[in-house]
């Protein structure tokens, strides 16, 4: 194990055990360098890794402090209420921006999920979600043109898919089984989220169905910044 990772692991353990509480000031880089008998650059890199992982934050000219990980947004992972509604009801300064709406090439998995024919056209609509102007989640909805005939025309103006579904006469929803996984952000995702490489993304794959008819409305893939949320699975 490298000296840098040894320092990272020791400090993570100290934070996890309660030795350091939220907003406590951590030892300076010089103090860490002396304690572990390493160059100061090694201590600095260790703190940079901890900041990327969401354990600490820095105050310019004052040092490094423990991040309050309990101030993360509590998110109930259900598909019957929109993300926009969940955030608005919690009182957050929430915004949603549609960043693309475009037709996809044939993808067997997505077409099968949507229970649609190969000749159908599938569009993906991407919305970037913000809390206090910070991008925290990317929602990508895949929908069939045979179900939503104007999706290619209005897709770029949709900020809430649930509101769009309501406008089409679908009022109650149920979720299809969900899959959770973890990935690290690609270069394009890092730019979207304005986040470093080491912060993992929680990836949720699910779908939305009309409760009354059982019709599949969308295949949904969501990327959440893992350092911004705590998750409740019902």
TrEMBL record:
The keyword Transcription regulation applies. Residues 1-69 form the HTH gntR-type domain. PROSITE patterns: HTH_GNTR (PS50949). Transmembrane segments: none annotated. Keywords: DNA-binding, Transcription, Transcription regulation. SUPFAM superfamilies: Chorismate lyase-like (SSF64288), Winged helix' DNA-binding domain (SSF46785). Gene3D superfamilies: Chorismate lyase-like (3.40.1410.10), Winged helix-like DNA-binding domain superfamily/Winged helix DNA-binding domain (1.10.10.10). GO terms for molecular function: DNA binding; DNA-binding transcription factor activity. One of its GO terms (biological process) is negative regulation of DNA-templated transcription. This is Transcriptional regulator. It comes from Desulfosporosinus acidiphilus (strain DSM 22704 / JCM 16185 / SJ4).
